Amino acid sequence: MSQIIGVVGLGIMGSAFARNMAASGFDVIGYDIDGDKLTALGDAGVRPGNGPAEIAQIAEIVVTSLPSPAAFHSVMTGPGGIIECGRDDLIVIDTCTLSIEDKTRAHDALATKGITLMDCPVSGTGAQAASGDLAILASGDKNLYEKILPVLKGFSRAQHYIGPFGDGSKMKFVANLLVAIHNASAAEAMVLGQKSGLDPQLLYDVLTSGAGNSRVFELRAPMMVANDYDSNVTATQKTQEKDMGIINAYIDGLNCPAPLFKSTIDLYRAALEGGFENSDTASICAVLEKQAGIER
């Protein structure tokens, strides 16, 4: 009998996790407050669950992918949450980008019921999640990491054990800092090229073969070329705002200089305020194009 894995939160990332684990041979049971998201996974063989507590009662391991601190705490310790499952042998793999304080609060609360929370954020976009091209930044109990490793391999390309609980989130903050900067630099380069009279597709073709290329440029520049930020969203501006706020607060708490990261904050905020809330973060290119007087 295949191992039963629960997935709570079936947005861009969570739905990809569920599909890939089902394809890897796991018996996947999922839940999301949006029933349509669960229905959409029926063709992948993902069974429907009725809530976090029920899934935690059935599954051997639960993976969570949630959009906000409020949703996270509701699923973990709220009414009908995982904490009410009545089991003392459950492992929860949390992949969210949240403050370490939020994660520690849930970790300690679940521990009183014998439930172990592992801090395992992922590095990668929604497009990468769909193909399983993600890196897992795991932290927590080392022995339990070895136990959950087969599950992590079911929806990721690389798995890293970072250290004690919370260190995975610290590594994620560093990774997301780079993504924010690379995305902004990609948009800036595309706008400079267009302002110079160069064709967007030619810019992409040439720059991806040179020293200035990056994984983020390869993923996001095609959206900039097409001027389409809604057809294949990999991460929304709304989520980006949440993540950047968490990272910025963490940076400030360490009194660590981060001038490049901080210089991008207003650009992402302008995209959010400009109607790109649910568009891909590559839409900062449209903001810069407007500032440059480029019309497409």
Q: Would you kindly provide a written description of the structure presented here, covering whatever features stand out?
A:
The chain is an alpha/beta fold. It folds into two domains: 4-165, Rossmann fold, CATH 3.40.50.720; 170-292, N-(1-d-carboxylethyl)-l-norvaline Dehydrogenase, domain 2, CATH 1.10.1040.10. The chain is 52% helix and 12% strand. The protein has helices spanning 12-23, 35-39, 52-58, 69-77, 100-111, 126-130, 142-153, 167-195, 200-207, 215-226, 237-254, 259-273, 284-292; strands at residues 4-8, 27-31, 47-48, 61-64, 91-94, 116-119, 122-123, 135-139, 158-163. Helix 4 packs parallel to helix 5 (100-111) and helix 8 packs parallel to helix 13 (284-292). It is globular and about 65 Å long. The chain starts with a strand and ends with a helix. 46% of the residues are buried. The mean pLDDT is 96.
